[in-house]
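G., the chain you wanted modeled:
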Amino acid sequence: MKKYKMVISDFDGTLFRSDYTVSEKSKEIIKRFVDEGGIFVVSTGRSPQAIMPIVREFGLKGVVSCFNGAMIVDVQTGKPVFERSHTVQDTIEICKIAEELGIYAIVLDREQYYAKEPNRYLDYYKKATFIEAVLSHKPLSEFVQEKSIESVKVNCIVEKEQRERLFLEIDARTKGRYYITSGSKHLVEISPKGFNKGTTVSFLSEYYKVPLENIIAVGDSLNDLPMLETAGLGLAVKNAETALQNSVQVYPYTNDEDAVAKIIEEYALEEI
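Predicted structure as tokens:
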């Protein structure tokens, strides 16, 4: 009998391929794993609206973790089983910092996301998520205050050469009061402190009564590091960011080579 009973996978850059699809092989292997009694969970920085149609399309049930662990949602009902959010004032503060630094920001709440105006950064985000933004046509800090928006996450979309500097600058300005991470080379993500993909692994371990040592986690970005360190076996795909590869074990296949499916086959499927 295989040791690993649960597989928790990041989505973008891990399960999701460069052509914005999940391969048929991955769907087939995940289905077989679940049919054998395994538990497969997607853990993503995306909102429920940007991930639920995809996981439902290939038949997943149970829960999906969104917003880097700040919200866990039942796939069938769409209702949260766990959630945390920024206050309105916290959201305003983060937006003001982004505005002062000249950063293009996107504010995400439980239902939708907001941006000031269309530009190439928003085009990039829409292409990945397939969802239209609500446009404020004014500074987001003002819009958030007027609408009393309690965000779950604020995304700052940046040039990859600027990411590290802006990451440190935002952290310094907020004095460590938020969880700041990154799900891609163009993102700085600001979430409620104390909740990340690692806390998601611990929550799912208790929720499904599966010991941590029987859980595999797979990812490619900095926001995946907490879950790879928390799970019994944490693996970075071959296309993972260098910083992640330097911190955890690397699996020798990329997202475009069905890395997640291969990991399930090797570590979690019963022998035929």
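Residues 88-101 form the longest helix (14 residues).

Shout if anything looks off.
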